[in-house]
């Protein structure tokens, strides 16, 4: 490249650098965070939904402490609206790591009267926060690992890798702890906790490239398959136990896959023929709609839906 | 499989309203990093607040308060990729009261993307930001001289800004500075080349980013460093020592010294996430086998020559973030690599005047002050001068009661102070 000489105020500097693959660096940074939090905090827990991001997180946790067992349990906040393929994967993945699984049930939160029942197939998305915070208090956890990525949402783009939660589980986006270099500072007082996000700097494409490189196991619904679906509010919903046809709606069989995994009543499928990891990597690299925009009813409520839920203590 | 890429971390530097967030928004839109639904959301938010068709600053100003006040409060991390590079972009706030957030974003930057308004030239805040970026060890800058459309793309106006800027970047020790005339709003010379300019044939911002030789912030030519995070017990007995490598490359067969103990041994094996390897480059999480039995554990450090210093007292440059002023003798906790120990600031030598880059007498440091101090620690720490290594030369000070991070510290002092 030809530089215009006069606008180069000083040059010829070449900083110390080694060509290191970005997936190796992302993997290394995540492993560093997992080890650092495990060492600094008394009782961490790893939040696991069975989706691709938490699958990568659990895979990395296995690498961080191998050949020893994970030094923390794995927790699933279960809304009761699960894809059966995801529950099967959850049990496989946890068993593979020899980890201890805690299931925190939204159904129980509702039955205990701690949250209003949203009714038959109503959204349990926000109630998860109550269940999650109760489970963190009950387990006396001072740190919870999550698979959230900063590229998912504009509020997440602002969040620290170690994110402080007060005694009510709240995030205060205007008063985040400074987080310089890689000095992740994990001290909290009793009742407070941290959320730790080792995948903060990964994009959706990084996740898929990594899954392909590692040839990881995933829930089968991520791969193209035939499913009876209905188009509603611009999303393809799988008809079944959690999505019932409304008046005037007609189910059709299409070849689809899921790009994200959330509650089965809220998560849309995308039309896709991508049946292998390399086909998915190719598809994601060309996508022009974001994964949450394409598939998540829970983010469509308002401009700051994610920030508002995070302030309350959401994932 | 798609081709592998390397990684460049950059932080935006500059004053409020000079267009940092708009420039990053433009970079993301014109390199097609944003999805259609994200662009639609930006357009809808712009319309709701009556700020035109597409206010690109809304791409990164994601918090409710930021959109209401039209300012950046905290760092937004955004990601861009070209066929050869992944960029991690820390879009930093400009206001002085958010200095700690700006420092958070710049602490891991390989490169500073400086944004200036051509009509206003070098503002106090830009000066302050450049000084903090330089203190944090950033040596490479790309300067986007913005809002060129408002001065009819005047070469003289562009040259004037450069003339003001160069003495400062020279004094601050920047080793590579490239200046580019741009209009972030109109999208000229950010990704797309400006059609207006006969007098400029240099790179666009994106081309300069792709061509940069900034290096990596964890990499130096000053010895390999492995702060031990965790000891792994291997099946069948034996221990390996895990941590993230920084400094120089570490090879199987290298002689290493365990510090602070001072015991010398040999690396007999290295593993990373992809398995055994003969050598590891900085930034990789590895675990290593050592030839001799040691009692090494978390907070110890393995190093190759030239060795770091083992000390309980050292000079440092700190940026104070506490709401209450810092006074000498105050008890604090210090976190340095994987070691935490009690510490106190024994002497405040002076406070830095950003305007003149001189150190003036001071007895305490207030919020956002930068000071030269002496630190004493209860346990020995293993440090390099920050100029030699940004990982082993950095630390944070923590209030032992509230657990708040009240200062960022760098061992030694910058050459320009």
Please give a structural write-up.
The complex is a heterodimer of chains A (315) and B (417). In chain A, 31% of the residues lie in helices and 16% in strands. Chain A is built from nine helices and eleven strands. Chain A has a six-stranded mixed β-sheet with strand order 4-3-2-5-7-6, with helices on both faces. In chain A, helix 1 (22-40) packs across helix 2 (52-65) and helix 6 packs antiparallel against helix 7. The termini of chain A are far apart. With 417 residues, chain B is of the alpha+beta class. Chain B has seven helices and 24 strands. In chain B, strands 7, 8, 9, 10, 12, 13, 14, 16 and 17 form a nine-stranded antiparallel β-sheet that branches. A six-stranded mixed β-sheet of chain B has the order 2-3-1-4-5-6, sandwiched between helices. In chain B, strands 18-22-20-19-23-24 form a six-stranded antiparallel β-barrel. In chain B, strand 20 and strand 21 form a beta hairpin. The interface between A and B is large, with 82 and 102 residues.
Report the major sheet of chain A. Answer: 6 strands, mixed
Mean pLDDT of chain A: 86
Helix % of chain A is: 25-40%
Spell out the CATH superfamily of the largest domain in chain A.
HUPs
Amino- and carboxy-terminal Cα gap of chain B: 49 Å
Radius of gyration of chain B: 23 Å
Radius of gyration of chain A: 21 Å
Q: What's the helix count of chain A?
A: 9
Alpha-beta content class of chain A: alpha/beta
Q: What is the typical, i.e. mean, pLDDT of chain B?
A: 89
């Amino acid at each position: 490249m030809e530089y215009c000489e006069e606008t180069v105020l000083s040059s010829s500097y070449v900083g110390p650098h080694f060509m290191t693959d970005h997936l190796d660096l992302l993997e290394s940074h995540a492993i560093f965070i997992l080890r650092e939090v495990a060492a600094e905090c008394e009782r961490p827990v790893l939040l696991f939904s069975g989706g691709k991001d938490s699958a990568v997180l659990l895979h990395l946790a296995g690498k961080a402490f191998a050949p020893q067992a994970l030094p923390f349990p794995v927790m699933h906040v279960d809304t009761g609206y699960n894809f059966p393929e995801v529950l099967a994967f959850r049990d496989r993945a946890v068993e593979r790591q020899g980890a201890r699984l805690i299931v925190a049930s939204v159904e129980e939160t509702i039955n205990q009267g701690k949250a209003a029942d949203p009714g038959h197939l109503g959204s349990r998305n926000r109630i998860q926060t109550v269940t999650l915070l109760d489970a963190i208090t009950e387990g006396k956890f001072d740190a919870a690992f999550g698979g959230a990525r900063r590229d998912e949402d504009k509020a997440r783009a602002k969040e620290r890798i170690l994110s402080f939660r007060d005694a009510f589980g709240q995030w205060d986006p205007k008063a985040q702890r400074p987080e310089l270099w890689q000095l992740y500072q994990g001290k909290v007082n009793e009742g407070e906790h941290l959320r730790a996000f080792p995948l903060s700097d990964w994009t959706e494409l990084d996740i898929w490239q990594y899954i392909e490189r590692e040839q990881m196991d995933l829930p089968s619904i991520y791969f193209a398959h035939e499913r009876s679906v209905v188009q509603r509010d611009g999303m393809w919903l799988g008809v079944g136990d959690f999505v019932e046809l409304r008046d005037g709606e007609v189910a059709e069989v299409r070849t689809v896959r899921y790009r994200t995994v959330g509650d089965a009543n809220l998560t849309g499928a995308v039309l896709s023929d991508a049946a292998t990891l390399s086909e998915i990597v190719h598809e994601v690299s060309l996508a022009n709609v974001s994964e949450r925009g394409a598939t998540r009813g829970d983010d469509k409520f308002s401009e700051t839906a994610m920030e508002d839920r995070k302030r309350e203590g959401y994932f | 499989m798609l081709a592998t890429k390397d990684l460049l971390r950059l932080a935006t530097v500059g004053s409020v309203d000079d267009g940092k967030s708009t420039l990053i928004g433009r970079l993301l839109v014109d390199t097609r990093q944003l999805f259609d639904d994200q662009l639609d959301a930006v357009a809808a938010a712009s319309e709701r607040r009556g700020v035109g068709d597409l206010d690109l600053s809304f791409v990164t100003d994601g918090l409710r308060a930021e959109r209401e006040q039209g300012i950046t409060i905290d760092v937004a991390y955004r990601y861009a990729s070209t066929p050869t590079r992944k960029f991690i972009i820390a879009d930093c706030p400009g206001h002085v009261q958010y200095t700690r957030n700006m420092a958070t974003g710049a602490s891991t930057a390989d490169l500073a993307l400086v944004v200036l308004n051509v009509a206003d030239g070098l503002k106090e805040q830009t000066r302050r930001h450049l000084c903090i970026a330089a203190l944090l060890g950033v040596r490479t800058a790309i300067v986007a001289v913005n809002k060129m459309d408002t001065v009819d793309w005047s070469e003289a106006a562009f040259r004037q800004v450069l003339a003001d800027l160069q003495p400062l970047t020279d004094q601050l020790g920047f080793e590579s500075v490239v200046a580019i005339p741009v209009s972030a709003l109109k999208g000229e010379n950010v990704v797309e080349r400006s059609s207006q300019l006969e007098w400029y044939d240099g790179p666009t911002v994106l081309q300069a980013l792709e061509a940069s030789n900034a290096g990596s912030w964890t990499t130096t030519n000053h010895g390999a460093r492995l702060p031990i995070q965790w000891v792994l017990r291997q099946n069948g007995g034996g221990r390996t020592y895990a941590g993230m490598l920084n400094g120089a490359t570490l090879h199987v067969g290298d002689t290493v010294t365990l510090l602070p103990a001072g015991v010398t041994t040999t690396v007999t094996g290295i593993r990373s996430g992809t398995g055994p390897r003969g050598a590891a480059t900085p930034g990789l999480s590895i675990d290593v086998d050592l030839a001799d039995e040691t009692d090494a554990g978390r907070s110890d450090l393995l190093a190759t020559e030239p060795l770091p210093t083992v000390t309980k007292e050292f000079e440092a440059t700190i940026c104070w973030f506490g709401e209450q002023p810092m006074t000498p003798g105050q008890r604090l906790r210090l976190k340095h690599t994987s070691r935490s120990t009690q510490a106190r600031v024994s002497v405040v030598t002076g406070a830095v005047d950003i305007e003149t880059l001189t150190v003036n007498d001071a007895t305490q440091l207030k919020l956002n002050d930068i000071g030269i101090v002496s630190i004493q620690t209860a346990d020995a720490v293993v440090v390099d001068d920050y100029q030699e290594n940004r990982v082993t030369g950095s630390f944070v000070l923590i209030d032992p009661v509230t657990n708040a991070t009240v200062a960022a510290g760098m061992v030694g002092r910058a050459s320009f102070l």
